[in-house]
Give the backbone structure.
Amino acid sequence: MKHRQKPRSASQWMVALKDAPGDETLREEHRRWLADSEDHLKDWDETLRTWQLMAMTLPAHIRDWSQAASTRADRPEEAAPATGTATTERDRTDRLRPPGRRLRRPVLTAGAIAAAVGLMFLWGPKALLDLRADHRSATGEIRLIELEDGSRLQLAPESAVTLAFDPSVRRVELLRGEAFFDVVTEAARPFQVRAGVAETVVVGTRFAVSLAPERTKVAVQEGSVRVDAAPSDGDKTATSSRLAPGDVLEIGTDGDLTKGQVADSLVAAWRDGLLVAQHRPLGELIDVLNRYFNGVIIVADPQLAQRPMTGIYRLSDPKVALHAMADAQGATIREISPWILVLSSR
């Protein structure tokens, strides 16, 4: 393999083979690597299964990869059927794999189907929201926006807002992500921020709003705000809360309120490159890391995603932060490629 570093793990082989599907020399090297040890076979099998879980299309030469995992000198009984035997390509692929290592067929894998649907709903809505947005930020980008009234708005990575200013009111809607507001006082024209089921009303203050699928959070650094919550559940009445500096209010989509405190300096800590967690679900923190990571981090275990986390992590290196979170939970990280990481329980 000229000008190429030889892969040393199953995930590296996966990337190399996908990049060069017609490279016979590379494929022969891969067969020899698989034949070297049972650990290589196990690693390769797990990598294939993870790849399918993510609903990725396996390359056309997958049969050759499977064949290499089973056509070893100590397994003559598992050789391919003789020419003329009436078998399908799928039958040959399964027969060529060692017992207990049969490749799960994507068409029958509920996890793969769910992952495909999940990926569609993960990126599809973002694209639709971006069409509505007046301002948005990219992965890893913190964007400063000067508003027409002199107020300032900072968007965390992968965030989006719409603006509607008129002579009587200044309105902002947070479509996704997080934002920090430094609002100029205009007594006759209140400043309103809509995010999920919550609306924050201010005259002049500094505060942050974040939007997640299950809740909206408002944190005040300076001044005071009023938060009106209209739950999506029509059986519950709307509520109104006043927040002072250091107050944090979380509003669930069902209208449930959770009030807490945070140091003023830690409000919108992402502006200083920090992720501050106080009993936050691990899955929620991974969602934040994904905004700074040029790829995708997947939590394979739903129960792991619900485990609470407390700590302060640097966002400048999402991989380092991820490893710190994994260590705290006794979890493992599997690197499918430099841009695809899978977090799972040990």
